[in-house]
Amino acid sequence: MNPASAYLQFPFLLAAYGLTLPFFIALYQAFKLLIYIDKNKTFSEGSVGALKVMKFCATIISAFIIGGVLFVAVFLDGDRAGIIALGLYFTFASSVITTFAGVLQHLVKEVVDIITENELIV
Fold first, then answer.
1. Distance between CA 91 and CA 71 in Å, rounded?
2. pTM (predicted TM-score)
3. How far, CA to CA in Å, does 117 sit from each of 47, 105, 107?
4. Which of 23, 30, 31, 55 is least enclosed, having the fewest CB within 10 Å?
5. Residues 28-72: pLDDT tens digits?
């Protein structure tokens, strides 16, 4: 509709598709983690792996958003403050998820190690 920004259509679509892929992978891993919790296998290697993948996906999402904010800040003219602020909000949210998943992964890994050590003692 707007010829001045028509050249941004394909990079925007590529970035949107690239951003949704790690989001849906992390969503699937969260579903797997809930299944592990439901089957009383909360403290297992599968839970640690799911949390690791979720942490990695949240990091990729943060990197995509930071790349998009830098692209907007450098290459686009006009009023960019709203887009940059929105990108920073989503980056902060994704960073919180990364941190939470990392801490939870570490704690679950420690419990799994303690459980395996206790099984070897008995």
1. 15
2. 0.84
3. 18, 18, 15
4. 31
5. 999 999 999 999 998 999 999 999 999 999 999 999 999 988 888
Q: 76 phi and psi, to 5 degrees? A: -100, 145
Integer Cα distance of 17 and 20 in angstroms? 5
- The structural domain count of the chain equals 1
How large is the average pLDDT for residues 83-97? Answer: 92
Q: Report the C-alpha gap between 67 and 47 in whole angstroms.
A: 30
Burial bucket for residue 101 (CB in 10 Å: 0-12, 13-18, 19+) = buried
Domain-embedded: residue 3: no
Query: What count of residues does the chain have?
Result: 122
